[in-house]
Amino acid sequence: MTVQELMEEAKKAREKAYVPYSHFKVGAALETKDGQIIHGCNVENASYGLSNCAERSAFFSALSQGYKPQDFLRLAIVGDTVEGCSPCGACRQVIFELGGENFPVALGNLHGIIQETTSTELLPGAFGPKDL
Ligand code: THU
Questions:
Q1: Deepest of 21, 33, 115, 124, by most Cβ within 10 A of its Cβ?
Q2: Residue range 101-121: average pLDDT?
């Protein structure tokens, strides 16, 4: 799958967002090595701090389905942003843990921007599984 096609999947995931508080929808699409696409969206809560981001929703959904950390090819993220939608710090940590080092991540917006980066560029010097 091309990065553009994966970004289109992230846009579909974004439409499922539950965002009654921020009204800021984010979508994520995680491509697996066995050819599946797993969607993630942000899911908010009246107790705001319990809200879950789209990127973490995608990875947690994948592991809940039985996928393992080495099973993924790439993550695409999209939001209604000026530049590509940038993952928060907590999501960067989870992307590094479950995607691994140098894991490809595409940051997109609704107007066709796609910025290609990696888990390691997003979180240089990350604390990860090897540090324990
Ligand atoms: N959000 C994400 O889902 N991913 C990001 O990369 C940035 C922020 C969500 C959290 C919250 O539901 C809303 O966007 C506003 O912060």
A1: 115
A2: 98
Which residues share a beta bridge with 78? 27, 108
Q: Which residues are tagged catalytic?
A: 55
- Each residue of 34-65: pLDDT tens digit? 999 999 999 999 999 999 999 999 999 999 99
The predicted model scores a pTM of: 0.97
Q: Where are the beta strands (DSSP E) in the chain?
A: 26-32, 37-41, 72-79, 104-108, 114-118
Cβ 87 under 6 angstroms from ligand 1: yes
Residue 11, number of CB atoms within 10 A of its CB: 16
- With residues binned 3-state (H G I as helix, E B as strand, rest as coil), the percentages for the chain, rounded to 5, are 35, 25, 40
CA of 81 to the centre of ligand 1 (A): 11
- Nearest atom within ligand 1 for CA of residue 53: 3
Nearest CA to ligand 1 atom 1: 53
